Amino acid sequence: MPVTSQTRKFLIPILIFLLALSLISANLHSRENMSFFESLVVGITSPVQKVVRGIIGGVGSVWRGYFFLFGLQEENKDLKQELQELKFQVNKYREADLANQRLRALLNFKKSIPTPLMPAELVAFDPSGWFQTILIDKGNNDGVVQDMAVVSAEGLVGRVIGVSGRHAKVLLILDGNSAVDALIQRTRARGVLQGLGRNRCLLKYVQRNEDVQVGDQVITSGMGGVFPKGILLGKVQEVIRVYSGLFQRVEVEPAVNFSRLEEVMVVVQPPVEDPALTGSRKQQE
Amino acid sequence: MRTFFIYLLLIVAAYISQTVLFPIFLIPELRIDLFLVLLLHFTFSYERSKVLVLALFLGVLMDLGLPLRGFFHPLIYLAIALLASLLWQNLDLRNWLYQALFLALCTLLEGLGIRLVLGLQDAGFAETRYFLMVLAGRTITVALVGPLLLAGLERVDQWLSSFRIHQESQEA
Questions:
Q1: How far is residue A87's CA from residue A94's CA, in Å, rounded to a whole number?
Q2: Which chain A residue has its CA at the smallest distance from B131's CA?
Q3: What per-residue confidence (pLDDT) applies to A136?
Q4: Do B78 and A126 make contact, defined as CB atoms within 8 angstroms?
Q5: Which of A61, A63, A122, A130 has the most B C-beta neighbours within 10 Å, making it the best mutation to test the interface with B?
Q6: CB-CB contact of A181 with A221 (8 Å)
Q7: Distance (Å, rounded) from C-alpha A167 to C-alpha A163?
Q8: Which residue from A10, A67, B151, B171 has the highest number of Cβ atoms inside 10 Å of its Cβ?
Q9: Which residues contact B92 (CB under 8 A, 6 or more apart)?
Q10: How many Å apart are CA A36 and CA A33, to the nearest integer?
């Protein structure tokens, strides 16, 4: 029976919707690794994205090198002062480190082995702008796997949520879907750091009676096995204690300047499997 | 074939702008969805089946940054493409005022659609106040800039068709 143009008009949208639905169901089962299509698109577009980033970086360095020299004298003075302060801090930390080593030896603790780090370059951000994810140029072939932590010299960047052969997708700590078990460094008060979608995070579930002050540093607690302990997350920017409720609202400014992020490091140590999570994941499958 | 490559180039350029240039140079409130503008242009120029395939493709590209399981953007783009193809003749979407309003409406639908699906999944998202602020900013920006971009794309189409006619006449 020949297909009329009227039938075709309805048939094509229906076929496309069926295709969309089949892609949805396929997608629901294989989100941990990027699909073939995703890997292909990333593989094709990432070299161009890298070149564009390189050009922008080059232009930026020229700008910084020549045009920003105006404030150099002032900056030099500030930096000298900062250097003096840092020298003082380094001496202090060296002392603390030595004391720490002695105490660890006394308590018969094993000295922790430094975690291996793998440098990676940022290739792209989330195209929609609604989510806080980035794409880096290291993937399965380099030994990157799901849930590995990603850091920069300033602090924690996020964790790997999708991997292809040569690229990995990283969920930044700024995203609302990111949750990191955290500690206030000074008082060891616990909480969960969640992104607010903009350049701010919220430290949730900090009890009302805990001592938290503006300027306190927030670090990873190491709980959950994804993020190594002691990585800097940011500093407390605002503390709000409402009259009722169990918890206080603690807003945190991330240590990493995400808008200037260029190079990151992947913590190569594989994440520790949480039996509870693994069980639920298997159940879901 | 030439038209296909030109449009592929435009899609790649839009993708690179959204993944590399916009996050560096634009504040979130000013970021417009170039794929949405491209999609509307294709809706005005091509038959529905082709546009739906393209909507699917653009949606999958957009979903590359998605931190969750899902297939949000293809569905949203399919819905927008269908809506635009049904409306454009009745509403005279070639008029820049209608274009501005329709682009603003689509941006609102896109943002609210993502928010709704994430809400249903109980997933984390930006604070409501911040989300509304960004959405309002993007809606206004797309209403102001979108018609200009569509006019630019129209010029590209004109150039392509004149080139085709020139080539055909030479062959003849």
A1: 10
A2: A197
A3: 92
A4: no
A5: A130
A6: yes
A7: 6
A8: B151
A9: B98
A10: 9
Tell me the C-alpha distance between A34 and A169, whole Å: 9
| Strand partners of residue A234 | A218, A254
Is A38 in a helix, a strand, or coil? helix
Written as six digits, the tokens of B126 are 């930006």
> Integer distance in angstroms from the first to the last C-alpha of chain B?
19
Distance from the Cα of B60 to chain A's closest Cα (Å) equals 8
Contact B21 A56 (CB under 8 A): yes
A285 pLDDT higher than 50: no
Which A residues 5-44 touch B at CB under 8 Å? 9, 12-13, 16-17, 19-20, 23-24, 27-28, 31, 37-38, 41-42
pLDDT tens-digit readout, A22-55: 666 665 554 566 777 777 777 877 887 888 888 8
Q: Which CATH class is domain A116-269?
A: mainly beta
> pLDDT, tens digit, for every residue of A210-244?
888 999 999 998 887 788 888 889 999 999 887 77
User: In Å, what is the CA distance from B126 to each residue of A43, A92, B2, B114?
Assistant: 30, 40, 42, 11
For chain A, how many residues are written?
285
Mean pLDDT, chain A, rounded, equals 78
Contact A195, B124 (CB under 8 A): yes
In chain A, residues 158-197 whose CB comes closer than 8 Å to chain B: 161, 169, 171, 175-179, 194-197
Q: For residues A146 and A95, what is the distance between their CA atoms, to the nearest angstrom?
A: 38
Closest CB from B28, B49, B56 relative to A12 = B49
Q: Using the 8-state DSSP alphabet, how is residue A271 labeled? A: P
Q: B26: burial class by Cβ within 10 Å (0-12, 13-18, 19+)?
A: middle
DSSP A81-136: HHHHHHHHHHHHHHHHHHHHHHHHHHTTPPPPPPPPEEEEEEEEE-SSSSS-EEEE
Domain ranges within chain A, ordered by starting residue:
66-106, 116-269
pLDDT in tens, B14-26: 998 888 888 877 7
At residue B99, the 3 state secondary structure works out as: helix
Interface test with A, best of B15, B20, B51, B106 (most A CBs within 10 A): B20
Looking at residue A26, what is its pLDDT? 60
Q: Residue A68's beta-bridge partner residues?
A: none
Structure tokens at A277: 């999570």
ipTM for the assembly? 0.80
Q: Which residues of B touch A11 (CB under 8 A)?
A: none
If DSSP codes are grouped into helix, strand and coil, which group holds residue B156? Answer: helix
